[in-house]
Amino acid sequence: MVAVLLGWNPGVGDTWPGYSRVVDELGAAGVHRRSWPTGPGTGAGAEALPEPGADAWLLLHGKTGSGLIGHGVVASAPYLAAGTGPEGEPRTCVDVDFDALLPLGDQIAVDILAARAPLTDWSAAASAGSQAVPEEQARAIREVWAEQLPADEMDPVLPVPGTLPQDALVRVGVSRYERDPHARRVCLAHYGTSCAACGFSFEAAYGPEGEGFIHVHHLVPAAQLGPGYELDPVGDLVPLCPNCHAMAHRRRIPYTVAELRAMRSRAGYIGGSVVSQQELDAQADARRILGST
């Protein structure tokens, strides 16, 4: 199975309490795992249950509207979970790692989906517990999602979740603090947007289009953080360009900024800054005044 549609009606049962809070937390955590009921535990249709690694598309319906509102990846084989049916009877569930969730009201409308992927009965799919999606339809859904979903502002280098097939992806674990929007703003307000290791500035290199673009790196390995850890955005985070950020994570315990600078020094690179033509002209005038030319 390539992908599955998971129907969700916020007005029926208690499938997802606190959804709005989860949407906010996902921006910092990067992933949210949830057990999701897919249908009865026995009977016909068991062959169509979601398989681990399949794309899971969350399809909203009900009073709040209808449309595609989230993407995740099936993270477990189907299992029986007690107390998930209307009368508390066991139902078949899977674990889903959601990596993109839109706020209620921002879902991609069903009419847009139907125009691009007409083979799917979107109305029936929304009310169903789960429905398998053929590969051709999965490609169409990914294309619509890529066009309609805003790019991830925390890491524009990475593809938007759900826009590439799962077998084309290599998942890289990053600290959730590197994705925290508030922590990022505080860090960059203090350090600026030039790389702390090499000094590279996207704005200086690319002009206005590069303004504000830089990665944020967590200095302390996540394995060393205790459960009650409180982030210091100035003391714990530092801006790094994508090249230096990738190098920092090339070993299990990330390289420090000082080690990255030392690597560049050994390789023959000397830290500096871009000198404007006005500054060069000023230096030439100074040499002429001093008679050193």
Write up what this structure looks like.
With 293 residues, this protein is an alpha+beta fold. It is 30% helix and 19% strand. The chain contains ten helices and ten strands. It has helices at 19-29, 110-116, 122-127, 135-148, 181-191, 202-206, 233-236, 242-248, 257-266, 277-290, and strands at 3-8, 32-40, 55-60, 67-74, 79-81, 91-101, 108-109, 130-133, 215-218, 237-240. Strands 1, 2, 3, 4, 5, 6, 7 and 8 form an eight-stranded mixed sheet that branches. The protein has a two-stranded antiparallel ribbon with strand order 9-10. Strand 3 (55-60) and strand 4 form a beta hairpin. The longest helix is centred in the middle third of the chain and has 14 residues, at 135-148.
Quick recap:
With 293 residues, the chain is an alpha+beta fold.
Q: Key terms for this structure?
A:
293 residues; alpha+beta; eight-stranded mixed sheet; two-stranded antiparallel ribbon; 10 helices; 19% strand
What is the fold's blueprint, element by element?
Layout: E1 3-8, H1 19-29, E2 32-40, E3 55-60, E4 67-74, E5 79-81, E6 91-101, E7 108-109, H2 110-116, H3 122-127, E8 130-133, H4 135-148, H5 181-191, H6 202-206, E9 215-218, H7 233-236, E10 237-240, H8 242-248, H9 257-266, H10 277-290
Parallel strand pairs: 1-3
Antiparallel strand pairs: 1-8, 2-6, 3-4, 4-6, 4-7, 5-6, 9-10
